[in-house]
Amino acid sequence: MEEERIRYAVEHTEVLKEPRRSLSTFGTTNIHYFLLTEPVYKEPGSPEKETVIREGNVVAERPKIVTPDYLLNLEGFSKEARQYFEMARREVGPHATGILYAYKNQPENLTIVSEELLQVSERLKEMIEKEDRPLTAILKGVDELWDVSILKFIFSLTRGSVPGHVEEMGRRGYFDVDRRGLPAGARQRIEEMFTMVKEGRLEPGALKTELDRWGVFDEYEDRFLALFRRGK
Fold it and tell me: Looking at the domain assignment, is residue 74 inside a domain?
């Protein structure tokens, strides 16, 4: 029954207005959304005109180059997911590169208005065009499973961005793997993290975790410890 409810929510999710820009290849993208639903308490065929408006942001972090070995060291995955990573490791090799996308859903406001859903959508479209907001989307979803509708939107957004990201990263050599099994893109990310730690924009622990996940802390150990010495 739960799977059927989720499938129903996915099938009844519709993007009424796409954002005019795709996800950034080398930076964070903040997509603002309006998710429109009919209230769960509304009776079928009821003459009442009400629409629930959920407003928030989907923050897409900068796409990250990963390998099966790296994924094995990530937290938050189930036993089954780790078994899948092990299978991928055997089938494609421990250093085969891929792209990992990470998102945060940040709900902001919820309002209920006495208007039909499509009328609300048209009004929001006019506002978005007038204010020139290229990173804003309007979605139609299912009230009781509204977060499933957000996930469906995120999946579609990612699927449309992947080919361009792969092409651009490949052209810049980010997928090239060195003798330690580290992609060039990961090397660059580590260098950026060192700079961020020095400037106080990143905790050293985050850098240490990244080095451990790639299994290269021994290579960077001296540089890492130098961060804690006076004047470094």
Answer: no
